[in-house]
Amino acid sequence: MLTQSKLLRRRSYVLPSTFSFPRRYHSDSEDEGESTVTQVVELLRSPAKQRDYDQLRPFLCGASHHQLLQITLGLGSIPDALDFLHLKAKAEPNHPHHLSSVFQGALELATRHPNSQAELLSLHTFRKSNDLSIPLTTKSASLLLHCLESERMLDDALLLFNELDPSSKSTGHCNGLLRGLIKSGRTDDALHLLDEMLKPDSKFPPNDYTGTIVFGELAKRERHGRSFTDEEIVGLVTKLGEHGVFPDTFKLTQLITKLCGKRSNGVAWELLHGVMTLGGPVEVASCNALLSGLGRERDIQKMNKLMAEMEEKMIQPSVQTFGILVNHLCKARRIDEALAVFDKLRGKGENEKVVGVEPDVVLYNTVIDGLCKVGREEDGLSLLEEMKTENKNRPNAVTYNCLIDGFCKVDKIDKAHELFIQMKEEGVQPTVVTFNTLVDGLSKHGKVFSAVELFNEMKGKGLNGNVNAYTSLISAFCGVNNIDKAMQYFEEMSSSGCPPDARAYYTLINGLSIAGRMDDASVIVSKLKQAGFGLDLACYNVLISGFCKKKRQERVYEMLTEMEGAGVKPDTVTYNTLVSYLGKTGDFATASKMLKKMINEDLEPSVVTYGAVIHAYCLKKNVDEAMKIYGEMCSTSKVPPNTVIYNILIDALCKNNHVEKAISLMDDMKVKGVRRNTTTYNHIFNGVRDKGMLKQALELMNRMIEDACSPDYRTMEILTEWLPAVGEIEQLQRFIQGYQVSLHTTSSHILDNNLMYSFKNKV
Predict the structure, then answer these.
(1) pTM for this model (two decimals)
(2) How many CB atoms lie within 10 A of CB 92?
């Protein structure tokens, strides 16, 4: 790119195509002029050695612009034209502007040549390489610029353009150069050229074709070179609009759609309103594009504002306009507002009907779907009945699909199935969506047989199940522990042209792991990876749990290593599973390390984590360590012990002859507000019975009644074996009837009882 100073040094002027030189030689008539041109052409065509230069010289020096052009065109070939150009230059070396018409003629001859681009380029090279300083006519400049643009020689084109006198530059020249710059991705050069065209005093202002070039490029989603920024787009549309050049409806709609697709709704809003303000043509399609963008951002306030502005500017909305508004109101769960708009279109209630807009079946379906999404299926059914009474908007498969899906989601499977039968009776053919939705609903609600029956009906009609339907069936069969059937549907899905997605793989892996079929689960994991999916945290957790249950420690550690390699961090569930497993295997050291690692990774151990460790220690009869962890829970942890943890500890204390501590722990439950349940009392009853603590047993019976805690078969088994043997049948009967028992027992009973258990323990 040349600097401005260099351009000024090289700049010359362009002669207008109508320019004529002072006539030193002229004919008396037009016929004479034509005869002279013919004569000169014949002289020039003769071999150079045989030419009569004395006869030729007057013509070379005195011919008019028109005659020189006609002579050049009459020669008919580029070599002869160049030869003539050299002769003319020698004849008048101090008048290079006299060469312009000859050079124009040579260019025009080149355009007639089959390989005109190459010829034009050779003439361009000739002009540059021969220091003739030939000024260009407007037509010459146009021909050369067009050629250079076509050949993407944009640096040469810019240099040539800048050589032209400003008064000789035209909008056409600019448009051609602008088109080439934009297509080549030279955004900054294009913007610079546009700035020149858009100046208030510009001699070559933009026209509609300029707009076509610019707006077409701005609307492209992807382009070569630097993209136009949002601010540049708005700026160009505004500046061109100030010159009366506006995008047509199609281009304006494209621009708004592009901006909204980039979530630049504010810029799209500014663009549309800029065109409106400048008086450009704005039609409903462009407004609809902006409404769609605003709707995706749930900007209902601006949607309503735009609707009001459309009414003010008398832009007639279409049914699609209202469809966009209603659709996004429904998605925003503002169903009452959507119904208000819908009622206005129908002229229902106090609403005045919108003239020229009738709701179509798409709009009805949108409202019905919106109603179903917020649990108002019955209102959706009312609209279905209304559609049946109309000729224009008869319900279609989409209508029924929305309702069937809605009823499935609120567990009204029978009603959903009833609608399925009804649509067939009405002559509306169920689609693959209908079948898949109903199969999914039936499967999720445990109606596996009906789901399979419907699925087979669908296949009988030549319709293929989608991944959701297959996944639902797989999940349903895993839920009833029919793993073989689940695997059958998985294989069928893979072979029927419906490749499983990640959720389908996860569902089957989960079912296999819960069923303990870890080898089969490993096979499905391999297939999942071959399909390009990766395991997520939930899937790793279920696999680790499965391998723990099967006591396959090496596979557990393989999973953990794989998780680390995949960048999947263990969560509380992972650690709970591992701590529980390690505790059960007696590896308390590793379990404690896991617990500390969990805390170090800012994962708060849950009550399940603590419960797993406490339970493991209790199983190994290490009650002291279990009580130590209980103490940590109470003093340092944010997680208080729950009923399950207290029950584990109370049971372990009783079994290790620490009944008094167990009773004390039970009292602590009341202080901390933790509910004592039947299991709590059963553990204590076991302990006091084994130690013959009858009085404490009677107290516990009263407490159990106070806690409104009903005895179960285990409670009755303990007490009926013990109390009658020590003469406390009456107390047992009162307890069974729900009455408080008396704490006054005979000392002989207590003594006999103590002696009996003392003797029993010795034996």
Answers:
(1) 0.61
(2) 15
